[in-house]
# Entry
Amino acid sequence: MSFTGWRMVQMLSALVEAAQRFRREGELPPRGYKPKAPKRIWIVNLEEGSVFLEGPYTQKEPDTLAPHRLLAPDRQRSGTPSETNLKPYLLVDDARYSLGKAEPGKEEEARLLHRGFVALLESAYKRTQVPELKAIIDFLKSNKVEEVRTQVGPKDIIRFLVDGEDPAESPAVQAFWAEYLATELVAGHRAHCGICGAEAHVLRIFPREVVVLGQKCQITSFNSEAFASYGKAQTENAPTCFACGSDAVDALDYLIRSERHHRTLLVGGGARGLENQLAVFWLQEKVELIHEDRVYDLEALLGAVLGDVDRTSGPPAELSQLDALLGVPWNARASALNVDESRFYLAVLSTNKARLVVRDWLETSVGRIRDNLRLFLAAQRIVDPYGQTRRVFPIPVLLAVLKAGDPNVTHDLLRAAYLGLRPREGLLEVALQRIRNPKVLRNPQMLHPLLALIKLVLTYGGEEAISMEVLDITRDRAAYLSGRLLAVLEEAQRRASGGNLNSTLTDRFYAAVAAAPAANLAILLARAKVSHLPKIRREGRGYKEIEGILEEIFTRLEAREGLPAILNPRDQAEFALGYYHQRAQFRQEAREVSDKHHGESMPERR
Amino acid sequence: MQAAGAIRVKVWGDYACFTRPEFKVERVSYPVITPSAARGILEAIFWKPEIRYEITAIGVLQLGTQMVILRNEVDRRQANAPFFVEDARQQRSSLILKDVAYLILAEMKLRAHATDPIAKYLDQFNRRVERGQCYHRPYLGTREFAAFFSGDGGEAPNPLLNLDLGIMLFDIAFVESKERTELEFVRHGPGGARRTRGYAQALFFRAQLEQGWLRVPPEKYHELYRLEDGPNAQCSS
# Structure
């Protein structure tokens, strides 16, 4: 395998690069700012010496009003506030900071916080000379503040407008905040940045947290004594300059927030962060493909493989589009752009005790992905349990049906999809374990993705990927034929009972038959000959069809030395496919018969 | 022509974790061994205060695959006062490498206070490699991932392996300082070992795999020695 032209740069470095793209596209807030949507926000409007208090606005307000959605200065803040741990946000903060509104019994703390807020505003005014800041400082030092203070809650967010203008939007104020953070957050000494390699003052702590699946976490965190080395504290253990650190956190925060760039792969039952997995992905540059006069967003298409786990009724639209587009050359809308050379990045993230966990990180080019995705989707494409349509599944659906919290399962599927690495045989064992569960066997919605996964491992990269999409009556592998035989015996049982069965022989014997077909199928066959087959012959319920299939299967089996005594995991996967395909075939025939009868009994429309 | 103190050692192991500093707690490994980890392996095999190793190149015989493991660890350091592990339990995830093999090319250098010729140390090193002797078990990044070693055996890296690895940890400089006394460490010199105080500084380099070889820029060693021994630092060999 050639690795020429590959890159395996670190995630933070790729995020810094991504920040440049997102900034160009206007997606990122100014450095040190963050999109916020407070639970309750008041607007203090200062107009020509008068004060108007608007609000409170809550998150229930329609988005069009959106005074509660704003870009505001932000920084990491934790611990009990004190003289040495005083971290006000510039301009937009809660009422304890901005107005000195005390929580009951915490008047002293409120005074301290407010003092810090005003001091920060004064520094900003001194540096920028923005007149709106002066107006706010004057207001905060006047008697009018008391009137406002009585109406708001201590944890309510206060935003100031001066003559309708928000000073937080002033470029000078934004530049001040970035500069202020840069001096506040860095250590006193210089070192080499581990992201860009340049010598600079390194961060003591990252500018802010990111929220992964509802849990706040730091990109780099050394939040226990044992994690630090060489006598260094916090981020000094991972030397990072302010520019790289803030760009990385801004880009990651944007990716996590953006619907376009993230997908939830797995959400565990409990609150444990390590059970949850979130994928973020992006392209080096935004690419729009053009095909038959339609424009496709390549990022959304590539993300379709990680599509929504809830959409089990049909493949997500983007995945169907991607599946269709894999067979044609990709041309970018901007003709100068070489689509194949564009780089694709993907990270799988979890959280663990306020720390970001990178479960997987991969980087490749679009050209490679296209070939790899083609193989991946072809290998898993399989007919539905009713024999109607053939479809593929996004990775979260495959993970959900496996119910496996093991990150290596995600890892295998992602690498098969994007890097073209053959899926591990270990996946088969997990899938076979699941299929032995009668609840799964009885549920076509679960069975379909599970068999797609089994087919993926079994046929990846082979010609069988096509022939195994539906029942292959020419396939003479003993394990496949044994699986088909079980489905035929089950069908005989169904027909004999008239379709009124609470549980079938498959529910009870699948696991035993799949492990040792010869011993168990012989018993089931003997039972069918005595009870089910005579009954369906007597009552005319398709005996000839069943007999014909049994004959065909036994003819092929005899040519292959009969029923196998035991099956290894790979053969058990064949067995599962044989059973599934034959069962789907029966369901399809039954539906066709039912539709035909239904059509005949319907009065003709005139 | 081969340098006077040239060394070639093959190392391999089932697992490896060359932890990136930025993901040190929830560990993420670099995709290949770092020069400092390679130096650590050589020092585990043979080390004297009179010598030091300069890694010149690392050949990737087996890149390995990545896998995720979750382990129970503790959140505090061992000290005089004992603690219950159950009270300090922390689960930590590691994105590690599986089935790796490298060829380490290095030069053994004499320190300024060495009196014996380098051939003496070189012979000792080669004898130890031949016999499989080591002072402590060499490891691939972390101590639980033991490394095996042998002579190079004529193996060569995959010439199709070309990878941009980005910025990579080169080594840690232990700098004596009276202003920044963040840690205590041992310094070796003509007078023997002595304890001193100072700080550690990580050095990085732009890592590039070309035809299976990761070349380590020699100027990084000059930078390391400048930091550790002052501006006039040099090796005698």
Notes: The two ends of chain A are 65 Å apart (CA to CA).
